Amino acid sequence: MTSYRAADSKREEFRKYLEKAGVLDALTKVLVNLYEEPEKPNNALEFLYQHLNGSGPDSADVEALKVDVVELKAKVAQLTDENEDLKSRLEKYEPSSVEETNN
Known about the structure:
Elements: H1 2-21, H2 23-36, H3 44-52, H4 59-93, H5 97-102
């Protein structure tokens, strides 16, 4: 009988830990969302993973960031080309280091 109470005590302690950490609230919210979902997903476990990870970015945010990265890479390439062009044009007007040493 004492082992039953010890297990019960450990279970209650663990439940309090989960409640204090907010795990029970998070699980409840996700399960309620799944219950209220008009069309149940084929993979309920995947639904739980996606909705439990509330701190992660939305897929729309990720897509927008990917577009930004592509645009910024193109801008960097354009500015790098422009920089190289301006450097070559500047060399035409700067005296070469050989001429400076002769003077």
